[in-house]
Amino acid sequence: MSFPDVPLNEQREVTDENFGALLVQAAEEMVAIHQGEQAPARIVYPRETARNREVPAPPLYDATRVRQVREKLGVSQAVFARLMNVTDKTVQSWEQGVRPPSGAALRLLELAEIQPEVFNAVGSHAGE
């Protein structure tokens, strides 16, 4: 027993009287979708989760590599610090080997190294 006058996407109130008919209709819709006769009412896209996607840790950056990334961007230490959202002294300590970058800074350095034009463009949109 189908309900052809009820749109597929419309919520239907389930009662004791119509439960069986709704169950049969759902099964019929499932078969029609599986056979390609009907489009699914809703498309579910798979999400990436820690269970199905491996995200490697960012590489480590020593003083020389940090300086190379900054020079690749063509910016001063002060501008680089602002792009990285850290202080000038932090960039200086990285480039002098006093303290290595850590945490999110490692991922930002990786992005700056791989996509310098995208990373550098971030600073050009300030205040928009």
What brief labels describe this structure?
mainly alpha; 128 residues; rod-shaped; 434 Repressor (Amino-terminal Domain)
Description of the structure:
The chain is mainly α and 128 residues long. Helix content is 48%, strand content 0%. The protein folds into 2 domains: 1-49, no CATH class; 63-125, Orthogonal Bundle (434 Repressor (Amino-terminal Domain)). The protein has helices at residues 19-34, 63-73, 77-84, 88-95, 104-114, 116-122. Helix 3 packs across helix 4 (88-95) and helix 5 crosses helix 6 (116-122). The radius of gyration is 28 Å and the shape is rod-shaped. The protein starts with 18 loop residues before the first helix and ends in a 6-residue tail after the last helix.
Number of domains: 2
Query: Total number of β-strand segments?
Result: 0
The string of secondary-structure elements, in order, is HHHHHH
- The CATH topology label of the largest domain is 434 Repressor (Amino-terminal Domain)
On the 0 to 100 scale, the average pLDDT is 86
* Total DSSP helices: 6
